[in-house]
Amino acid sequence: MLDIKKHSTLLIDSNAYMYRFFYGTEPRHCPDNNPVHVVYAFMGYARRLLQQYQPNKLIFVFDAEGNNFRHELYSDYKSHRDPMPEDLAAQIELIKTAITLLGIPLVEQPAVEADDSIASLAKVLASESNHVYIFSRDKDLMQLVNDQVFMVDEKKQQIIDREAVQSKYGIEPERIVQMLALMGDEADNIPGVDGIGAVTAAKLINQWGSIDKIVENSHWLKGAVGNNLRRAVDALHLSEQLTQLKIDLYTSQAQDDFHLLPEDKYEIHQFCLKLGFHE
Fold first, then answer.
1. Superfamily assignment of 173-243 in CATH?
2. CATH superfamily of 9-136+249-275
3. With a threshold of 0.85, does the pTM exceed it?
4. What is the pLDDT of residues 78-93, one digit of tens each?
5. What mean pLDDT is reported for the chain?
6. Given Cys at both, which of 5, 30, 59, 88 links 275, Cβ 3.0 to 4.6 Å?
């Protein structure tokens, strides 16, 4: 079991786990033959988190439907992604119902992404007495890692702290935004700069710091990297905006919100009967 402090806050990148359970668990259908294996996996997973880690807060964070502010900045943002499989999309509302019946709060903020909600929650919920653990493998979230905020990679059974980010990328977590902007992100269709990968990005960041300073000093860079960087100035600033997560969606009042509640045992029983689960 991972060494996670008891009575901490756990933030779950729910969409990532939906795909993980969709492709990684055995098919299961309810009596009317609709798929429910992701619902079943989520219920078991949520209960395991509660039992193993005894968190003070456990919050499942979802992407809201529709476009968000990044699409307004860049219409091609994530434009090449395939739509969610129908058999997964059909289970989303049932997943949310199951989580709610288990007494666990969920967050789904319109016009932003789950990553932004996670970033904002981590900002207001983390303190010296309350560590926040983000359950995700998304490198975009590494910009949030600090002395109170950690990422959890369950596949590798690893807790990612400041030292782990520094060791992996050669830069501090606070500079991950600049690295992602320079590299771009094919998965999200973020432009970046042609020919710049993680190693070159880290070198530029460690030498000059901010994107503005890198652009300002780009005349010192020779060859393809320098030429590509100078041609990509507008795209680079756009990429920085796209990779920067919002941290202002919640106020300090969130410290008193998102309480875990007792399970609704009767409704859970009825829910499981309807879906053909054995509790």
1. 5' to 3' exonuclease, C-terminal subdomain (1.10.150.20)
2. 5'-nuclease (3.40.50.1010)
3. yes
4. 888 889 999 999 999 9
5. 93
6. 30
